[in-house]
Amino acid sequence: MGGPAATEPAGVKSARRTIELLETFAAQDAWLSLSDLHASTGFPRSSLHGLLRTLFEAGWLEADPGTARYRLGVRALICGTAYLDRDPAKPFATEALETIRERTDLTAHYARRDGAEVVYLETREARRSAHLVSRVGRTLPAHATALGKALLAELTQDEIAAVLSGPLRALTPNTITSLEQLYAECEATRQRGYAAEFEEGTPGVRCVAAVVPYRIPATDAISCSMPADQVDDAEAGQVGELLAETAIELGQRLRRAGIR
After folding, report:
1. Which of 11, 120, 169, 193 has its CA 20 to 30 A from that of 202?
2. Residue-range domains of the chain with CATH
3. What is the dihedral of CA 127, 110, 145, 244, to 10 degrees?
4. For position 75, what pLDDT does the model report?
5. Model's pTM, two decimal places?
6. What pLDDT, on the 0 to 100 scale, is given for residue 124?
């Protein structure tokens, strides 16, 4: 008797392959050839030819005619922007980030957990920042960020282990790579009321973050990032307490507006 793959309708298989193909492009910075994609996905070359042609004709991919390589096209940006435009929490979050930036002169972020990653939905750069590349739409491993640790602290240890089913990848020498260390960090987060990390996600940067309590378990959090060599523990703690207060107020506003 055949397994699920044997009985899966062809249309469903094609849709799943299309999604995986787009996610493969999203995870890579470079142009990708059919051979690159075959090595990454294992899809038959004949299927890849058809999928690439369809996605290119629909505007989801653009091609480099000189090398027969592809990358994401403008339709991907249009759909991603539509997600943000239709998120009812985002206008409230944007206002909260503006307040945080005004009070701290630090870069503030709003993010949502998606499985083992956090996705940045909005950023307000510090006015003195030389950083000009928006994080919106970018992802980082939850275990390596204050945002992610704040959100993981909403879960039980069993739930955390289920979410982080694979090895914990190190982004810097300071990244937590063991579940036991992460459990301890989550407990410290619950005790403090905010999460903290020191150069765990990005060298030279420390962050604090707090969950926005309008869903159970929380899905969203706000954070501040700051130069690691210019902010001491006491100053970072003051920012963390401000974030916790702001996040609670934001959660109350969202619930009053009927947003869940």
Report:
1. 193
2. 4-77 (1.10.10.10), 87-256 (3.30.450.40)
3. 90
4. 94
5. 0.86
6. 93
141 token code pair: 């491993």
Distance CA 44, CA 24 (A): 15
Instruction: Report the SS3 class of residue 94.
Output: helix
Helix (H) or strand (E) holding 48: helix 45-57
C-alpha distances out from residue 109 to 57, 134, 245, Å:
36, 10, 15
Count, residues in the chain = 260
- 84, 90 contact by CB (below 8 A): yes
Query: Which tens digits make up the pLDDT trace of 100-117?
Result: 999 999 999 999 999 999
Please tell me the distance from the alpha carbon of residue 73 to that of residue 82, in angstroms, as a whole number: 15
Amino acid at 249: E
Residue 182 CA to residue 188 CA, distance in Å, equals: 10
**pLDDT confidence bin for 133, thresholds 50/70/90:** low
Helices (H), 58-165: 74-85, 90-104, 146-152, 157-163
Give the DSSP letter string of 151-200. HHTTS-HHHHHHHS-S----SSTT---SHHHHHHHHHHHHHHTSEEEESS
**CA–CA distance, 109 with 252 (Å, rounded to integer):** 19
Q: What is the DSSP letter of 136?
A: T
Q: Do residues 144 and 198 make contact, with C-beta atoms less than 8 angstroms apart? A: no
CB 182 within 8 A of CB 168: yes
Taking CA atoms, 32 is separated from 60, 61, 101, 138, in Å, by 14, 11, 39, 19
Q: For the chain, give me the number of helices (H) and strands (E)? A: 10, 9
* DSSP type of residue 62: E
